[in-house]
Inverse folding.
């Protein structure tokens, strides 16, 4: 098992447990000692993960073993049938989309895909989608609305692909169009940040009736490295940028950017894919049931108002609310 630098206290106990199991099996008092070690491991893991810094949260969100969209497609949904192409340019593997079942509910599910191997990561540009990926996503979401299917979006990207070709094919425009179209799409939409939620790349499939974030994911206007490069002229200041951006799940919930924080298994989602998938499955089912109690027009109106409220603040002294001159 791979441990991050700040997880060294956890790794030390885990190593001791493994060594003891190999060398002390059957010794007097071994079972009691092993129980104490396992108890200490749980307590140490809780202590570390209850006091994460923003930069440590970023490291967890990027962990190589963290479950990706393709993992959740197999663990949460049944009968996934992938759809390809934007009918304009091509098919972008950085976004997976298709029909699926959530128990007896037919849905359209889509999400960013980073890839596990280096070859797959190159193919998907590490989860950075091109314009054709966002056009593909939007075309399939319109198809879902046509047939009355709810949409579930899984967000996991450091940002939209910034290359020349992507810009030439209208990267900024297509993200803006997606946000506009999703804001008025007449079907329930659930969005969940499962790892990284970076910049416009996340917003391109991030407008929904409910926006959730996993406990150890982050959702930000820019990556820490990008922010550090702009403000401090170097990516080596990424940790400082992470502290300033206020993008952890606690910050996002407090500011009203997300509606729900979904708890991860002890030690992070990368430690237990099945448990994390079961929690997400339960959340999606409960949320879809809740959204079904509103009419489509109510959903669309509430969705619009929800995003209009983000960023409202009160100035100290004169009680002026942003966007309100009264």
């Amino acid at each position: 098992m791979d441990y991050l630098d700040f997880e060294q206290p956890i790794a030390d106990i885990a190593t001791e447990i493994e060594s003891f199991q190999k060398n002390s099996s059957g010794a007097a008092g071994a079972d009691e000692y092993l129980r104490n070690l396992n108890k200490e491991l749980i307590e140490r893991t809780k202590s570390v993960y209850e006091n994460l810094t923003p930069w440590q949260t970023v490291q967890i969100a990027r962990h190589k073993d963290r479950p990706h969209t393709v993992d959740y497609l197999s663990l949460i949904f049944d009968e996934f049938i992938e759809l390809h192409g934007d009918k304009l340019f091509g098919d972008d593997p950085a976004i997976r989309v298709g029909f699926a079942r959530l128990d007896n509910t037919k849905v359209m599910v889509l999400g960013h895909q980073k890839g596990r191997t280096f070859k797959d990561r190159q193919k998907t540009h590490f989860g950075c989608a091109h314009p054709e990926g966002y056009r593909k996503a939007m075309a399939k979401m319109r198809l879902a609305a046509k047939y009355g299917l709810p949409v579930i979006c899984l967000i996991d990207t450091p940002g939209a692909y910034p290359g020349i070709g992507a810009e030439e094919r209208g990267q900024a425009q297509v993200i803006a169009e997606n946000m506009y179209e999703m804001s008025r799409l007449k079907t329930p939409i659930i969005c969940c940040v499962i790892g990284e939620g970076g910049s416009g790349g996340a917003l391109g499939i991030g407008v929904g009736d409910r926006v959730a974030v996993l406990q150890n994911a982050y959702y930000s206007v820019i990556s820490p490295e990008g922010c550090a490069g702009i403000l401090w002229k170097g990516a080596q200041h990424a940790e400082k940028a992470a502290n300033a951006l206020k993008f952890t799940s606690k910050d996002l919930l407090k500011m009203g950017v997300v509606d729900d924080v979904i708890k991860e298994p002890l030690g992070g989602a990368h430690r237990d894919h099945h448990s994390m998938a079961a929690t997400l499955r339960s959340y999606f089912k409960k949320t879809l049931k809740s959204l079904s109690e509103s009419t489509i027009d109510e959903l669309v109106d509430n969705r619009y108002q929800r995003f209009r409220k983000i960023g409202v603040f009160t100035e100290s002294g004169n009680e002026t609310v942003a966007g309100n001159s009264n």
In short: The chain has two domains: 5-51, 58-309. The first helix runs from residue 8 to 23.
